[in-house]
Amino acid sequence: MYKMKRTAAGLAALISVAVVPTAAFAAQCGNDGGRFSAWVQEFKREAAGNGISQSVLDQALGSVSYSRATIRADRGQKSFKLSLDQFMQKRGGQVIISRGSKMRAQHAKLFASIERRYGVPAGPLIAIWGMETGFGSFLGKEHTLSAVATLAYDCRRSAYFTEQLYAAIQLVGRGDLSPSARGAAHGEIGQTQFLPLNVLKYGVDGDGDGHIDMVHSKADALASTANFLRGHGWQPGAGYRPGEPNFVAIQGWNAASVYQQAIAIIASEIDGD
Question: Could you report the per-residue pLDDT of 95-145, keeping only the tens digit for each?
């Protein structure tokens, strides 16, 4: 999930990390990899000054490198320019519906539990799960911390991804993100592709093991996704097609209208609505 809109609560969500206002951030951004290593050192000094321990910084950033694959992906998001029919075909909408219906039956108890807690039915969760990672079958291959650090360094959206980098470091510090984790090109994490700041804000321990593991635990990933939708205005029992009350929550998930419509279509087919 790549949500471009910057949340007003972004800095507040970094619970134990005192982040300075972005305007005061001194590390100089760049539009190629030439200064990346120097930028990382500048960032580490800034972060240490904001209360992050050196050991956590070394653990989180010790092996980051400039990710050209991330920059290519960031500059080339072409699928969102397709028509709805083209997008559904390209992303395998009918396959997601077919497999998703089986997933709903296979994990009926889990989805029932999530709906009782968050008011979100199975369909939208399964649609997002299938659309984002093929139900956990492909989480991405890019080094997560390198991807986020690259985009924090890159001048295009440095402020937005600097917040994400602070969040990713906090996840490493509390043991909820491995420094070697791999995922999608923009640093999205786990089976439903949360950016780090959204893991901090909406992530929940769905399986009760004491950690929020978006990669290995489908219960954590799906419960967190339901919590995200609830946090974006989901109303239990209301519809989620375009024009209905809960479509606004789906819009919060992704900024592309074609993606939003596809999620609503796939979800309604799975739910049988």
Answer: 999 999 999 999 999 999 999 999 999 999 999 999 999 999 999 999 999
The 10s digit of each residue's pLDDT in 181-202 is: 999 999 999 999 999 999 999 9
> How would you class 11 by CB atoms within 10 Å of its CB: exposed for 0-12, middle for 13-18, buried for 19 or more?
middle
CA-to-CA separations, 83 to 248, 250, 258, in angstroms, rounded: 20, 18, 7
Give the phi and the psi of residue 30 in degrees, each rounded to 5: -150, 160
Answer whether residue 242 is part of any domain: yes
**What does pTM read for this prediction?**
0.87
Of 119, 122, 118, give the one whose Cα is nearest residue 108. Answer: 122
Q: What is the CATH number of the domain that holds 239?
A: 1.10.530.10
Return the CATH number at 157: 1.10.8.350
Which residue in the block uniquely carries the two structure tokens 């999530």? Answer: 114
Secondary structure of residue 194 in the 3-state scheme: strand
